[in-house]
Structures are given as structure tokens and as C-alpha cells.
Design a protein that fits this description.
- The complex is a heterotrimer of chains A (about 250), B (about 270) and C (about 600).
- Chain A has a single domain, classed as Immunoglobulin-like, CATH 2.60.40.420.
- Chain A contains three helices and 17 strands.
- In chain A, the strands form four sheets. Chain A has a five-stranded mixed β-sheet with strand order 5-11-10-7-8, with no helix packed on it. In chain A, strands 1, 13, 16 and 17 form a four-stranded mixed β-sheet that branches. In chain A, strands 12-2-14-15 form a four-stranded antiparallel β-sheet, with no helix packed on it.
- In chain A, about 40% of the residues are buried.
- Chain B folds into two domains: about 100 residues, no CATH class; about 140 residues, Immunoglobulin-like (Sandwich).
- In chain B, the strands form three sheets. Chain B has a five-stranded mixed β-sheet. A three-stranded mixed β-sheet of chain B has the order 4-10-9. Chain B has a two-stranded antiparallel ribbon with strand order 6-7.
- In chain B, a hairpin with a 4-residue loop joins strand 6 and strand 7.
- Chain C is mostly helical.
- In chain C, strand 1 and strand 2 form a beta hairpin.
- Chain C is globular.
- Chain C starts with a helix and ends in a 16-residue tail after the last strand.
Chain lengths: ~250, ~270, ~600
């Protein structure tokens, strides 16, 4: 009988310890802006970018009309006037402590469909971060993300009629990046980069900022949909900005 | 109530026939060279079907009216001519009529399917994929580059999976989202399915052909009137089936050449 | 012919427990009523789905209150998405074709009345027969399940053309688990119907009572016999087709999926399959299936009309031969669903000729009915109204077939609302009218009570006028090029059609509401209807010689002997102008066996 008692107490203690550890890694707290450092940089493309083809939206007259005077092109490689590469996702692939990695921002960014395009073309999200999908066009779209098979993220496909409220979605696993298509308008294409920790996406000038980075040493990775990934190591001091520039080579 | 029923059948039959007689709803205007035979066949069939419909409904109504009272004391009687008379009527009136329709209709079908395209028919390829049609013109070399399924990328508008760097024939191919053709020029349409079954339905051209994944098909036609027409998918292909369509522009030869040049510049 | 019916009865005496009496019953009459109940639930589901579809077609972006309860993602803000429309459409057709039109006229009425018509005490294999119902019931439950899985039921239409049906969920919501469930349900359904056919056929061949030659069988029994033969040979093709489809989903096979297909920018892991193979397999089953749906109705309508005309048909045998000809020809015409499918266009011509020829037996049947009306003493009641309505509807549906039988005309009309008009007139209305006629005629026998005649007539009027108002405009829309299976109509040339669709929707909702009268009549009469006599219609066939409802062994232990053909009307006898089939009374008849 005594032996059983000992086993029970040990098991309980172990369980309590286990749950405690589990719980500690799942804390969700809002990070105050003052706490972390920032990483900024510029991403450039070296060489001639591939020709971005104009998109003919004639099968959807409302969208064709919207872009009649200002035609839209594909966005696989978008380069600004100074050679800045847009739509590059920059994230911390190594060095995040467990606490920061497990934080889930409370903001819910919007993935919008407007003029038969995804706005933004590339969106970075945290794992388990909620986001909203909205349809600002006068006709239905379908949203069809295709994450890698056999992973934590599952494919879904649903339409959104015009005038219906935005719906909420969330991704369970890290994936850089999930391609998203509209099948009704096959030219519509975008990416959802789901990654733990703070991220940045480069703008029209190729500039990006990652905020709320705790002091430490990290591997910063930049991902572009055609050119793939590049990484470099940086050290972030508390309250001091750190720079990490990237240059992709056009093929 | 029997008499009321008879009148109702009559009224419904006549009301049903009115939109047909007045041609309220009819196929869009035919702009093809082969479509007249189809329209004639439709017209013939409408006459025969219409007469059969009206005659039989009116007969049904009359019989209900005439033979529905109790008529106590009267015996029931048989239709003179009996069953065999009616069997003969079925064979002669209807059987011969529909067979004749069938035999005469063979020509309309043969015009489209059993006559090969002329040697100078202009080739255009259409690819159907969820949920749009894309078209390809072979360019000055007159040849289509091969399709590489693993290179298809709608994100970069490479709908046909072309590899111009490796395939010289693909270098001058012109891919468009609208189909334009010169008027009065025979077109040889090559049909390729990217994913599931679709169908190429252009009512104005009197063309209707399913795409078959795994089997590339070919049809041919000539448009005779300049204008903007619609191509719609008519084979259920998924949720976007209702919105799978493209415009067909029939242009003068000059306008077509201009258009093709403009499209080539945008490749 | 030997009297094996005693053997069947010896297998089971009257049941005593509630379960044996009402749930797992071996009695063909209970099984028939169970099938009827299943058909009733299925038709309500099918009808409600059609209302939802029609509302969406008339008012595409309208919110339908409560719609989100039917689907997790298909109705955001209660607005129907395009995929949900297609899912509802697929389920509407599947429930209607299989669980209403195959179940009610064939399995429900057939099970109840076929053994009685042959003078037997039950079906030859009562355990198989019980299994046939419960297998069908399981199939029904599996189909319902598809509403509750991940992204809902399949959206590929009841025809499930490959590769859309075979490549999985990448091709659309519901195309993964939804298709597997659909195909599984139908494979089980086929099994249930095969069990049924394996009872119907030997009953007709071996269990006829003394004096009951084949030609003395009433017309519904001939219809059920012919239908069973079709069922045996067509369901046995659908079942393996469904299994192959399931294998393409779960076992990595590519029976129906060709190589090098790209969906959503991803190369599909299939190679070597045939798109057209599915269509051939499906339509080889599919065309006889539509005759399975209509032939029992033809038998029932003939039966109801004869009694209410007080004279037999002009020729009993010609009707039987014609129904048989329909059945045989139905296997030769299936390619008319595939004229522009990409099969050899010469094959299209080959299929069109038997399709044109099949108008001949259909016309013979209609002309025999019409010719038999000549000189009749027609009684007007709910049953005869629906029977006469069947004729009007079948004429309309048949006549649109003249167009669709021709490949050149299908260039214009294929996959348009013209086709939808054709099959709704023949199946949705005519076959349904056959079910209604059978219900109003046979309700007294099945439940021992009379239905309310006034409510029946109101139901008829609303339904007859209503269904014409709904489906006649479909022809016009089809002629103008309105493509089918569209959840809305954005194409430029279709803009003018939306007003017509609104009209149709209003007609559909009105007609649907009128069916409530029928449901009320059914339920109210079941419990409160006037008790029915044995023979309320002064009819001649064997079911009217037994009590309403019949005892467990149908004929109360007596060995039935039949002395006449089944439709001795217009005679002078001790009962009036008719003589019962099993009455030894010899009468002077002016109607010889044709």
C-alpha cells in the first residue's frame, strides 16, 4: 500500500510540473511598445526583374472597368524606382526565446479583395493570430489557400458573396508562405506568411521594419516568392535599431 | 369539374404556345456559316413538336370533356380502329416524323463534325481551367510551343506552362484572356482542358463542345458578323462555373491584326 | 406455376412484438409503408432544398434568414455562396431521383401491392426484403451525413462527372469527403434495390396463384416487374462505378483522372485515367434509371384510370409490350447525354436513332391511354385527376424530347434550361403525379381510412397549375441559351433572364406551399379519416377483394383462385358494372382480351 501511495504522489507532482511547463509556454500577453528593439533594412534586387505581365480582367467587367485607365500587372517581382524589392517577408528564423515566440498579437489584420486583387499581395501573420477576410468587390470571390500537405495548416476553400461581413480565420502552424488563390478570378494570387514572432514586409521602396524585438542575437530571414530565402545574423540591443539589408539576384 | 379541367388543359396549352409563336425567347442571332442548318432543324422540330403538343393536349381535353359525365344507362364503348389503329398512328405519325427529323438533321451535324477544316484555317488554342478561358495564338511561326503542366503558374500569367527559353516554338506564342478572330476567316480551334471537364458554348456561333481532360479536341467554324459575343462554360466545373466566361470579338482583318500586335507586345 | 406462397407464409406467422410488427418487419406491406415514409421524408428534404435554390436564383445576394444553420461556411451572413448553391442542387437531385422517384412508385407501392396482385401471401424472400428497406435506409442516413462533414456535401451534380468528382477537395468544397460519402451512400442504395429486385422478379414468375396467368397480372405489376429487370441490370453498373470513384479518392487510383492535370497551380498526382469512362458507366445506369422512375408511374396511372373510366385499356398487351420496349431501348440510348461530350461524333448519331425510336413506344402508351378515354364513363376524383394530369405532363415532357434527341439541336440546347424542363416534366411532375395518383387510390387499402376528397382536389389544382407555371418557362429560357447549374447569371446575354427566374421562384414557393395540403391530408386521414370499406372504388383487382387494411397474410388463409383478367369493367354482373378478378361469376363481357 505504501508503494502505491508513493507512486501516486510522484505521478501527481510530475503532472503538476508538466502542466506548469506547458502553461508557461502558452502565455499570451500584449507586448508594450517600449519593451523591444527594432530591425530595419532595405531589400534590393540586383539585375533586371522578370517582366510583369499586364492582367486582362475582361471576364469580370466590373474589375476591368476599375482598372481601365490604370492597368494592373502581376506582382511576382515588384521593384521600385530605386531598385527596392517589395513584398519581401522578413522574420526571425532563429534566436527567438520561447516567451516571445509564443506571443500572439491581438491585432486582426484584414486580407481584402478589391478590384479583383488581394490587398495586400503578401501578408505576414503570427501563428494562431486571427485575421479577417473581406470582400470589397460587387461580386463573389472564392478564397482558396493551399498550405503544404501533411502539415499543421489545412486547405480550405470558401466563397464570399458581395456585401457579406468579413470572416475570421487563423493558421495553426508556421509556414512561409501559404499561397492563396481565387479560382473564380485565376489571376488573383497572394501569400500568407505565417511565422512565430514579430515580422515585417517590405514596402514599395523595399524598406521594412520589425518592431518589438527583444535584445538578443537572431538569424533574420528574408523570403520572396520567386527568389526564395536569404538569411543573416544580427544582434539587437534594447531600444537601439539594428540594420539588416538584403539583396536578391535576378536570375 | 371535368369540364373545368378540360378547359384548364386547353388554356395552359395555348398559353404555353404563345411565347413560341411570338418568338419571345429565341436563340441569339446566328453569326456562323454552319448554323443555318441547325436553325432550320430547330424550326422544323418546333413545328412538329408544337403541333404534336397542341394536338395531343387538345385531344386529351376534349376526351375529358366529352366522356366524363355519368351517362347512366349508356355503355362504355371502344375507340373505333382499336389499339392497332393507334399503334399504326404512333409508328406513322410520330415514328416516321421523328426519324425524318433525325435523318435530315444528320447534315447539320456533319457540317460541323465530319467536314475537316480548310488548310488555311487559322489555328487558335483555347484552354479551359477553373474558372476562366485563356487563348493562345501561335505567332508568326505558326506553331504552338509545348505545354509543360509543371510550369503552369497563374500567379505569373503563365497559363499554358510555356517555356520559351527551352522551346523556340513557344517564343512567339501570344496568350490572351479574350478571343478575337477575323470575320469570314475559318478558325481551327484546338481545345485543351487544364483541370476538370468544361464546355465551350458560344450560342451565337452555334458551337457547343465539351473539353475532355486528357484528350485534346479540335473543332472549326467561321464567323460572319463583326461584334462582341460571349463564350460561356456549360459543363459544371466547380463553384465558379457560373462566372466562367470570356468575350469573343469578331473583328475586321485589319482590327484583328492590330489587336494581335498589341497583345504580342504585352506578353 | 406452383403455389409457393404458402412456403413464404410458413416462414413467418403474424408478428407479435412491436419491433417485429413495425420496425424489423418481414411483412411486405409494412416494408412498403416504410419505403413510403422514407420517400415522404426525402421529398420534403428535396423540396425544401429546391426552394432555397429558387430563392437564390431569383434574388442572388439576398440573405435567407437562418441559412447559416445549414452550413458552416456556405452561407456567410445568411447569403448563399456559389458552392452552397451547387451543394444544395446536388443533394436536391440525389434525394429526388434516388430516394423519392425510385423508392416511392417502385419500392413503396410495389412492395405493398405486388404480392397481393399476384395472389401471394408475401414476397418469396421476406428477410431479403426487409434487408432491402433497411439497406436503403442506411444509404439515406449516409447521404444525410454529408451535410455534417467538413466542407459539406459534394457540389458535382447528381451526375458527378470526373475529374471534378475524382480529384478531391482541391477541385472545390465538398469534393473530398463529400464525394466519398455520396458514392458510398449510392453503392449501399444499389445493394438495397438489388435485394428488392431479387424479390419482385421471382414473385411474378413463381408465386402467382391459381388462374393467374402472366397476362392476367394487373398493369402496375407488369410495370414493377419490368422496372425490377431494369434495376437489376442498371444498379449493378452504378455500384462498381461508385466503388471505382471511391478508390480514386482513397486508394490513389486514377480510373477517371487523366495525367498532367493542374488545379490551383498544382500538378495533380494522377495519371492514365479516362474522363469519358465515368460518363459511359454513369449514363448506362442513368438512362434506364429515368425509366425506372417513370414506368411504375405508367402502370399506376393505367390502373387508376381503368377503374375510373369503368373500362379496360384498348389493349392490355400493347401497353405491356410498350413498357417492355421502353425498358429494352433505354439501354441503347444513353449516349444522348453525351452528344457533345467529346466522344466520337459518329457515336452521337448512332445514339440519336434509338433515342428517336424510343418516342414510338412512349407515343403508343399515350395514344392507348387517350384512345381508351374515348367512350369512357370517367369519374373525377383526386386519384383520377392526378392520373389524367400525368398524361398531360408526360406529353409535354415527351415532346421536348423530340428536340433533345437530335445532336444538331443539342448544339444549342445541351446543358441549358431546356434539358432541365424536359426532365422535370417527365420526372419531377409526371412521375410525382403517378405517386400522388397511387396515394389517393391506394391510401384506403394501405391504412384502412379514406383521404379527404376536397383537400385532394385542392391539392391537385394548385399542383397542376403550379407545376406548369414553374417548368414551362424553363423551355423558353433554354431556347434563349440560359445555361444550367449556374448559381447566378452574370453573363451579359443572360441579364434579361433574371425576371423570368423571379416569376418561376414565386410559382415554386406557391406550389411548394400547396403540398402542405397533401401532407396534412395524409396525416389527418391516417388517424381521423373515415374508415374505408374493402372496395371503395368498385375496382376489380385482387387488392380490393381483401379488407382495408389487409390482414398479415393478405388473403386470410384462403387460397386465391383467379377467374378473369384484371380489368373486367363495363360488364353486367351481380356487383354492378364490374366483376372482381377472383369472383367465379361468369359474366357477359363486351371487352375481349386484346
Amino acid at each position: 500500500m505504501k508503494a502505491h501511495y508513493k507512486t501516486a504522489v510522484t505521478t501527481c507532482a510530475l503532472l503538476m510540473l508538466g502542466f506548469g511547463l506547458l502553461y508557461s509556454t502558452h502565455k499570451t500577453i500584449n507586448v508594450s511598445a517600449a519593451a523591444g528593439g527594432t530591425i530595419t533594412g532595405t531589400i534590393k534586387l540586383d539585375g533586371t526583374p522578370p517582366h510583369q505581365k499586364p492582367i486582362d480582367m475582361s471576364k469580370e467587367p466590373a474589375c476591368a472597368k476599375e482598372h481601365a485607365s490604370n492597368p494592373v500587372t502581376t506582382e511576382t517581382v515588384v521593384v521600385g524606382p530605386m531598385g527596392g524589392l517589395r513584398w519581401v517577408v522578413v522574420y526571425l528564423s532563429e534566436g527567438l526565446d520561447a516567451g516571445t515566440a509564443s506571443q500572439v498579437p491581438s491585432e486582426t489584420p484584414t486580407w481584402d479583395q478589391k478590384g479583383c486583387q488581394y490587398i495586400p499581395h503578401v501578408m505576414a501573420l503570427d501563428v494562431n493570430q486571427h485575421f479577417k477576410v473581406s470582400n470589397s468587390d460587387p461580386h463573389s470571390h472564392n478564397i482558396h489557400p493551399l498550405p503544404a500537405p501533411n502539415g499543421a495548416n489545412h486547405e480550405w476553400n470558401r466563397s464570399q458573396p458581395p456585401g457579406t461581413p468579413p470572416f475570421d480565420q487563423v493558421w495553426a502552424g508556421q509556414e512561409v508562405a501559404i499561397p492563396v488563390k481565387c479560382n473564380i478570378h485565376p489571376w488573383m494570387h497572394g501569400y500568407l506568411a505565417v511565422v512565430k514572432g514579430p515580422t515585417g514586409v517590405s514596402d514599395a521602396n523595399g524598406s521594412y521594419t520589425i518592431s518589438n524585438v527583444p535584445a538578443g542575437t537572431y538569424t533574420v530571414t528574408a523570403w520572396q516568392e520567386v527568389y526564395g530565402s536569404q538569411s543573416q545574423k544580427v544582434t539587437v540591443g534594447a531600444g537601439k535599431p539594428t540594420t539588416a539589408d538584403f539583396t536578391f539576384k535576378a536570375k | 369539374m371535368a369540364k373545368f379541367f378540360a378547359v384548364t388543359i386547353l388554356v395552359i396549352a395555348i398559353l404555353s404556345a404563345i411565347p413560341i409563336v411570338r418568338n419571345t425567347w429565341h436563340p441569339v442571332e446566328d453569326i456562323s456559316t454552319h448554323g443555318q442548318a441547325i436553325d432550320d432543324q430547330l424550326s422544323e422540330t418546333m413545328w412538329e413538336a408544337g403541333i404534336s403538343f397542341l394536338a395531343s393536349q387538345i385531344l386529351l381535353a376534349w376526351l375529358i370533356w366529352r366522356f366524363s359525365s355519368n351517362r347512366a344507362g349508356e355503355k362504355t364503348k371502344s375507340f373505333p380502329g382499336g389499339a392497332m389503329g393507334l399503334v399504326a398512328a404512333a409508328f406513322i405519325l410520330v415514328g416516321v416524323e421523328v426519324l425524318a427529323l433525325g435523318i435530315f438533321g444528320v447534315k447539320a451535324w456533319a457540317n460541323l463534325y465530319f467536314t475537316p477544316p480548310g488548310s488555311d484555317a487559322m489555328p487558335v488554342q483555347v484552354q479551359a481551367g477553373q474558372f476562366a478561358f485563356y487563348f493562345r495564338y501561335p505567332g508568326p511561326d505558326g506553331k504552338f510551343g509545348p505545354i509543360h503542366a509543371d510550369k503552369i503558374s497563374e500567379a505569373s500569367q503563365n497559363f499554358f506552362g510555356l517555356d520559351p527559353d527551352s522551346d523556340p516554338d513557344a517564343k512567339d506564342d501570344i496568350v490572351t484572356a479574350e478571343m478575337a478572330i477575323p470575320v469570314n476567316r475559318e478558325i481551327r480551334l484546338l481545345m485543351h482542358a487544364k483541370d476538370v471537364s468544361h464546355s465551350f458554348y458560344v450560342p451565337a456561333l452555334r458551337i457547343h463542345q465539351d473539353f475532355v481532360p486528357g484528350l485534346d479536341l479540335q473543332i472549326h467554324f467561321t464567323a460572319t458578323k463583326i461584334g462582341r459575343y460571349e463564350i460561356v462554360c456549360s459543363q459544371l466545373c466547380g463553384l465558379g462555373h457560373y462566372n466562367m466566361k470570356a468575350y469573343l470579338d469578331v473583328l475586321s482583318q485589319q482590327d484583328f491584326d492590330d489587336w494581335l500586335r498589341k497583345e504580342a507586345a504585352m506578353q | 406455376m406452383h403455389d409457393m406462397s404458402a412456403h413464404a407464409a410458413a416462414h413467418h406467422g403474424p408478428p407479435t412484438s412491436f419491433i417485429r410488427k413495425h420496425i424489423f418487419s418481414l411483412d411486405h406491406k409494412v416494408i412498403g409503408k416504410q419505403y413510403y415514409g422514407l420517400g415522404l421524408v426525402a421529398v420534403i428534404i428535396g423540396m425544401v432544398l429546391s426552394w432555397l435554390m429558387r430563392i437564390h436564383l431569383g434574388w442572388t445576394n439576398a440573405a435567407i434568414p437562418g441559412l447559416h444553420l445549414l452550413s458552416k461556411t456556405g452561407a456567410p451572413g445568411d447569403v448563399m455562396t456559389p458552392e452552397f448553391y451547387l451543394q444544395l442542387m446536388t443533394m436536391h437531385a440525389t434525394f429526388m431521383v434516388f430516394f423519392v422517384l425510385t423508392v416511392a412508385p417502385f419500392a413503396a407501392f410495389g412492395n405493398f401491392f405486388l404480392p397481393i396482385h399476384t395472389g401471394a401471401e408475401d414476397m418469396p424472400f421476406p428477410h431479403f426484403n426487409m434487408m432491402s428497406f433497411w439497406t436503403t435506409f442506411v444509404a439515406f442516413c449516409v447521404m444525410i451525413l454529408s451535410f455534417f462533414v467538413g466542407d459539406g456535401p459534394t457540389l458535382g451534380g447528381w451526375t458527378q462527372y470526373a475529374p471534378l468528382s475524382a480529384v478531391g477537395s482541391v477541385a472545390g468544397p465538398g469534393q473530398g469527403a463529400g464525394v466519398v460519402i455520396w458514392a458510398t451512400s449510392l453503392a449501399i442504395f444499389c445493394l438495397g434495390q438489388l435485394f428488392g429486385a431479387l424479390n419482385f422478379i421471382p414473385n411474378v414468375l413463381d408465386l402467382r396463384c391459381k388462374g393467374m396467368s402472366l397476362w392476367r397480372l394487373p398493369l402496375p405489376t407488369w410495370a414493377w416487374f419490368i422496372t425490377s429487370c431494369m434495376g437489376l441490370t442498371s444498379f449493378s453498373v452504378l455500384m462498381p462505378a461508385c466503388i471505382l470513384l471511391i478508390l480514386d479518392h482513397v486508394a490513389g487510383t486514377s480510373f477517371f483522372v487523366a495525367s498532367n492535370l493542374v488545379i490551383n497551380d498544382q500538378l495533380q498526382p494522377h495519371s492514365g485515367g479516362s474522363t469519358l469512362l465515368w460518363q459511359h458507366l454513369f449514363w448506362f445506369f442513368g438512362h434506364p434509371e429515368v425509366y425506372i422512375a417513370i414506368v411504375p408511374g405508367m402502370g399506376i396511372v393505367s390502373h387508376v384510370l381503368i377503374c375510373n373510366m369503368r373500362k379496360p385499356m384498348l389493349s392490355h398487351r400493347v401497353l405491356v409490350y410498350s413498357m417492355g420496349a421502353l425498358a429494352v431501348l433505354s439501354y441503347m440510348v444513353y449516349g444522348h447525354h453525351m452528344f457533345v461530350s467529346g466522344m466520337n461524333p459518329f457515336s452521337s448519331l448512332l445514339f440519336s436513332f434509338p433515342t428517336l425510336l424510343i418516342t414510338i413506344p412512349s407515343t403508343i402508351i399515350v395514344l392507348i391511354w387517350i384512345g381508351s378515354l374515348y367512350g369512357a364513363k370517367l369519374r373525377i376524383n383526386s386519384a383520377s385527376l392526378f392520373a389524367l394530369g400525368f398524361i398531360s405532363m408526360f406529353i409535354t415532357g415527351g415532346v421536348s424530347g423530340f428536340f433533345l434527341a437530335q445532336p444538331s439541336i443539342q448544339i444549342l440546347l445541351h446543358a441549358t434550361y431546356f434539358v432541365v424542363a424536359h426532365f422535370h416534366f417527365t420526372m419531377a411532375i409526371a412521375a410525382l403525379f403517378g405517386i400522388f395518383a397511387g396515394t389517393y387510390f391506394w391510401f384506403p387499402k394501405m391504412w384502412g381510412r379514406m383521404m379527404d376528397e376536397t383537400l385532394g382536389k385542392v391539392h391537385f389544382w394548385c399542383t397542376f397549375v403550379g407545376t406548369y407555371a414553374i417548368f414551362m418557362p424553363f423551355h423558353y429560357l433554354g431556347l434563349a441559351g440560359n445555361v444550367r447549374r449556374y448559381s447566378s447569371f452574370p453573363a451579359d446575354y443572360m441579364q434579361s433572364f433574371v425576371g423570368v427566374h423571379k416569376f418561376i421562384t414565386i410559382a415554386a414557393l406557391f406550389t411548394g406551399a400547396a403540398q402542405l395540403i397533401f401532407f396534412y391530408n395524409l396525416i389527418h386521414s391516417r388517424f381521423r379519416g373515415k374508415p374505408a370499406p374493402d372496395n371503395p372504388w368498385q375496382a376489380t383487382s385482387l387488392e380490393w377483394s381483401i379488407p382495408s387494411p389487409p390482414p398479415h397474410d393478405n388473403f386470410g388463409g384462403r387460397h386465391v383462385v383467379v377467374y378473369h383478367d384484371p380489368y373486367q369493367y363495363g360488364v353486367e354482373s351481380s356487383t354492378g358494372d364490374y366483376v372482381m378478378q377472383d369472383s367465379p361469376e361468369q359474366v357477359k363481357t363486351e371487352h375481349e382480351e386484346a
